[in-house]
Structures are given as C-alpha cells and as structure tokens.
C-alpha cells in the first residue's frame, strides 16, 4: 500500500554533461500481519534530458557524478544529497541509467527500518534473497553493530529515506513500460515480505567477539570450503583467529579481511594437540570467546582444548563417541551386537567365536573415517577377509567395523539443538550410491558408497519426518549431546549410520541456504559464542544476545518459496591422470548457482579400488524455478541432465 507518493527532478553534472532525471517515488506502508521490521521506498527513474550527448557517457564512473539539486513537486525546499551508502547506490543506478541512453525505466526499492535496533548481520538481505531473479543487484548499507532508527518521515522524505535506508534492490530490466516496472516492484514487495518477515533488527547488538578456528580450510583455488565460515563471521562482526601450520595461505596479509589474526600451531592430531592449541590461544593478541573446527579429525582435540580454556564445548568424550563408529553403536543403539576387528587375524578369531553365522551382505568400514573412505560391501566371508586385509593396509591405525547392510532410502538430517530443544532441523534425501545399486544386481556398478546426489526438501511424508527427527534427537541425547549442530546420516527404519557434531559439507550447507534461507556457518559460529567466559573459574556463562541471534537466524523461508535443490556429485570411477572436463551447456547455467571441478589438468588420481578413497571429480548445486513437487521433479530432471552432459577424461 502506498502511504506517500511524489516526484522529484534530479539535476546532476557528469564529467561535463548536464542531465535531468525525473524520479517518481513513494513510501510504502509496513507489511501488515507479519513480523516484518521494515517498510519500503520505491523509485522509478526516467531521463528528461542529457546534454551534450556523447559516447563518453559509456565510461563514466560514480566519481564523475555530482548532484546539483533535487527539486520536489510538493515542496519548495531543495537539498543536495550527501554521501551515504544508499546515496552512492542511487548515484550508481543513475549513472547506469544514463549510460543506457535513458530509453528505459530504472526501478529501485529501498528498505527502511520500522524499528530501532541493530541488524543481525550486514549481508542479511543478500543471503535471504539467494536465487531470487527479480533484482539484478542487491546492496546493503549497514555494518555490524551499527544502530539503525525507525523511519518516521520528515519534511524532505526523499532525503530522509536515503539517509536511513538499510538496503536496496535494483530491479531487473523492465524496458520503457511503466506497468511492467510497477509489476516488478510489486513482486519485489511480496518477496521482501515473505523473505524478511522475522525480527532481524534486534534491540541489542551482538558483542564484539573473537572466535578461534582450528584449521583454516583449503585455499579457495582448491575448494569452496573456506567461503562460508569466513563470510558468516565477517557478516556477524565476529573477529576470527585461525590456528594452523606455518605457511598456510591465510598468513598472507591480503587475507586480513577473512581472519584478523593467524597463529602458527602444529595441528597434527595427536595426544599433545589440545595443549598446543591452548598455548597458541595464549599467544593471541586479544581474548578468545569461542573455539571451533570444521575438520572431523580435529573435533576431539578442539573440544579438549576448549575445556582447558574454559570455553563452551560439548563433552569431549561425547564428541569422541561420534568420531568412533564402534563406540557410537554401543551408545546410540544399545542392545545391538557390534563386531569390530583390528586386522585379518583378529577378525578370523572373532568369526570363529561367533555363536551364530553372519548374514550377508555386510558392510566393513573404518571406525574413524569420512567421505565413504574404506566403506566396502561384501557378499561372502572370503570377500570380508579380503576387504579387511585391504582396509588394514590402507588405514593401519584404525579399527574396522562390520555390520549388516541395510537397504532402503538414506537421508541426511541436520539438527540444531539448544538444551535438548530443536532450534532448526531439515532432512534431505540421498540417492542410491553405486554400491547400493550393486546389491542383487550384476555387480557392474561402482563399488563406491560415495554420494551420487542429494535433494531437498525430503519427499518423506510429514509424519515419517517427524518420527525420524524425534528418534534422532533421542539418539543424540543417548550419546550425551543436547546442544550443537549435528549432521546425521541414517536410514528411516531407523538405522543410524553416523553422527557428525559439525556443519554438513559445504556443498550441502550452500544448498540449505538456497532452499531454506538458513546459513549453517552463522549458526555454528553463534553456538560457540552462546556461552562465553566471564573471567572467573566458574566456566562460560550464557550470552542472551548470541542466543537470540542464533534463534532469529534459524527462521526458515516460508514453504511457498522453498525452492528444491539438488547436489549432483560426480565420483571418480578409476585412477589415472586427469585430462580435463568439457563445459556444461549454457542452457543449464541459470539453474547452477555454484559448482566446482575438483581436479586440475595433469593431476594424478590414485586408483580408488586400491586406496579405498573415492573423491569427487566435480559437484553441481542445482536449483529449481518451481516449488513443491513440481520443483522437485524439475530439479531432479535437471540434475540427471547435468550428470549426462558433464564429460571428463582420465588417461
């Protein structure tokens, strides 16, 4: 609904050119019946004159533009605009409009705060609008802990709106048709209401916290795994101190925007690592309020170090149980027999001692492992002994777990808990692996249990999803875990495959943000800061601001705009030398917001049949343009098309 409408004539100077831009604008009322803490300000730009015309207009920069005056049709007052981020955004849009020769309309929408407070994260608007194609640019005008004030209007509403705006949208091109431009602005208004109707302007700011991250993640040229953690911390205004080996890429002074401090630390996962972490934190130039890691092999040492430092953590013994599948089975599935062995001789001895013979097929896998490494399907005792021999050679320091192969669909469940209560959860469906397809077939499929694809939201009925979620929470409690982020793999029967007390992999974390609007990296960061040290020996104390931020950022997008997403994984099929990959057809690109080819031309790929490790050649994050079942069918078809069209060569 339009509360105030007006027009203004903007006269400006651009590197010797004088232009007059007619700006139609209106202040819209706040969305009713929602928790939206904002209202909007719409602008339509049309060119009245540019003199003299010149091809030089094509190379103008924002610094070439100077606003001379703004004259409003309903007021005598004029005012030269200032240099706020919102005003700079307007300048840039005006420049682009004039460079387009003014033959079309330019539509903008600004967000105005409707309450006093502090915006939770500086990039919140951009992150909540992932996948929305109504805007060709989304801009944010605030910094962490910057106070914003409710827009109350003023005599000069135009200037006041630009002074107080917290974000803005440059609508997609609409041509010269005003009705089309108005329609796009209406659609943007609806999207803003749907995506931003939660209390993202808080009464109190998040304090200035410093977070230690143990292991800094691979270089961005190798993996996108570093992208999410540092983006989330920066957006929240959390300073990051990274602990890692000397020579890490984050030591480069050019990376200070990602981490404010790099502390050299030998992070070899041995018994002495917790003490080395404590010593490294003691060398930090400022207090550390929380500590996390994204590496499975460092979860236990990091938890032990947190205990020594008086920082929040789950019990290291509980984390250790999650990282050891033999221990996990004993705690999370009591009453079920667990068979494990160290080597072939140990396995033969235990097989001989069994009172009843094993029923095949079986799975054998390392008790400590990730990414399906060393997971083997066996159909006979001879295959079991051969697999044990190979796994002992590839993973000599790890015990091997032998358990029944459970058929049926597999799911990934991601749960965020605080004191046993669910703050956010979602479940997505895994497609069968090559080894799953092998069971009962001609054994021509890949023997790998590496993922082939996952799709969200899950297609399971709501009642089954609720039962699965409830049962998994109980399994977490049985392990002693009631607070944290947990990435769980299971069969809906319910057969627990593994619990990972961390975020899911970056591919799945990115997909969740596209479908649900939830940034797991931000939640993982805030969980570590939910309780902070108070300088006494009594341990960490709760921080209400961090807890409120955690709960607020756990508000998902409404179901009506939850667009299904699939991740297509391309696992290697054999070893050799990677000779490159062909580009995906351009017609599929609009549906792929993120992808990576993970090998460089000329790189050697070890034979996975011998190493027991099945890395991915590439992965593709694919989004639907439809919602519901239609969107699921669309994105699944797109995923299969991408798998068919992606070609690579191994020599």
From TrEMBL:
The keyword Nucleotide-binding applies. The keyword Nucleotide-binding applies. PROSITE patterns: ATP_GRASP (PS50975). One of its GO terms (molecular function) is ligase activity. Residues 325-529 form the ATP-grasp domain. Pfam families: ATP-grasp_4, ATPgrasp_N. It comes from the Eukaryota. Keywords: ATP-binding, Ligase, Nucleotide-binding. Gene3D superfamilies: 3.40.50.20, ATP-grasp fold, A domain (3.30.1490.20), ATP-grasp fold, B domain (3.30.470.20). This is Glutathione synthetase ATP-binding domain-like protein. It comes from Aspergillus saccharolyticus JOP 1030-1.
């Amino acid at each position: 609904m339009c509360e105030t409408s007006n027009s203004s004539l903007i006269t400006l100077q651009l590197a010797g050119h004088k232009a007059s831009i007619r700006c139609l604008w209106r202040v819209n009322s706040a969305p009713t019946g929602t928790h939206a803490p904002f209202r909007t300000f719409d602008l339509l730009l049309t060119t009245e004159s540019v003199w003299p015309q010149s091809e030089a207009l094509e190379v103008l920069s924002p610094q070439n533009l100077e606003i001379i005056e703004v004259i409003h049709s309903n007021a005598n007052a004029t005012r030269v605009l200032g240099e706020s981020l919102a005003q700079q955004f307007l300048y840039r849009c005006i420049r682009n409009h004039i460079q387009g020769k003014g033959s079309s309309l330019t539509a903008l929408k600004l967000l105005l705060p409707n309450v006093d407070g502090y915006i939770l994260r500086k990039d919140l608007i951009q992150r909540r609008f992932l996948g929305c194609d109504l805007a060709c640019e989304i801009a944010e005008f605030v910094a962490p802990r910057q106070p914003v004030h409710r827009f109350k209007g003023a005599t000069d509403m135009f200037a006041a709106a630009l002074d107080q705006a917290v974000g803005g949208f440059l609508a997609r091109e609409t041509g010269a048709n005003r009705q089309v431009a108005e329609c796009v602005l209406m659609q943007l208004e609806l999207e803003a209401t749907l995506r931003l109707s939660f209390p993202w302007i808080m009464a109190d700011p998040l304090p200035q916290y410093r977070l230690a991250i143990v292991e800094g993640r691979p270089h961005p040229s190798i993996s996108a795994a570093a992208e999410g953690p540092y983006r989330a911390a920066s957006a929240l205004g959390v300073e990051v101190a990274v602990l890692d080996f000397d020579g890490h890429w984050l030591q480069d002074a050019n990376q200070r925007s990602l981490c404010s401090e790099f502390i050299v630390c030998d992070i070899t996962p041995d018994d002495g690592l917790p003490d080395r972490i404590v010593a490294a934190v003691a060398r930090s130039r400022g207090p550390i309020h929380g500590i996390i890691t994204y590496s499975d092999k460092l979860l236990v040492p990091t938890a032990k170090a947190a205990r020594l430092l008086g920082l929040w953590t789950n019990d290291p013994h509980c984390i250790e149980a999650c990282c050891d599948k033999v221990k996990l089975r004993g705690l999370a599935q009591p009453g079920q027999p667990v068979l494990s062995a160290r080597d072939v001789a140990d396995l033969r001895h235990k097989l001989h001692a069994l009172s009843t013979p094993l029923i095949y097929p079986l799975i054998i896998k390392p008790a400590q492992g990730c990414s399906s490494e060393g997971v083997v399907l066996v159909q006979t005792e001879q295959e079991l002994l051969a697999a044990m021999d190979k796994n002992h050679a590839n993973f000599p320091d790890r015990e091997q777990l032998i358990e029944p192969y459970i058929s049926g669909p597999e799911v990934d469940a991601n749960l965020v808990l605080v004191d046993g209560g669910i703050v956010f959860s979602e479940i997505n469906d895994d497609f069968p692996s090559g080894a799953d397809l092998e069971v009962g077939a001609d054994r021509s499929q890949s023997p790998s249990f590496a993922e082939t694809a996952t799709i969200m939201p899950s297609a399971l009925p709501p009642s089954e999803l609720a039962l699965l979620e409830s049962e998994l929470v109980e399994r977490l409690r049985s392990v002693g875990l009631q607070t944290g982020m947990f990435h769980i793999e299971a069969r809906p029967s319910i057969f627990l495959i593994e619990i990972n007390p961390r975020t899911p992999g970056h591919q799945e974390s990115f997909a969740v943000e596209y479908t649900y609007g939830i940034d797991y990296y931000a939640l993982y960061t805030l969980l570590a800061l939910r309780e902070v040290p108070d300088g006494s020996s009594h341990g960490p104390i709760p921080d209400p601001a961090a807890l409120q931020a955690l709960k607020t950022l756990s508000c998902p997008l409404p179901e009506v705009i939850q667009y299904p997403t699939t991740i297509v994984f391309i696992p290697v099929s054999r070893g050799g030398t990677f000779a490159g990959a062909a580009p995906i057809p351009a017609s599929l690109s609009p549906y792929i917001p993120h992808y990576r080819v993970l090998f460089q031309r000329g790189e050697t790929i070890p034979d996975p049949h011998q190493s027991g490790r099945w890395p991915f050649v590439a992965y593709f994050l694919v989004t639907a343009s439809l919602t519901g079942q239609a969107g699921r069918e669309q994105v699944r078809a797109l995923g299969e098309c991408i798998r068919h069209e992606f070609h690579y060569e191994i020599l």
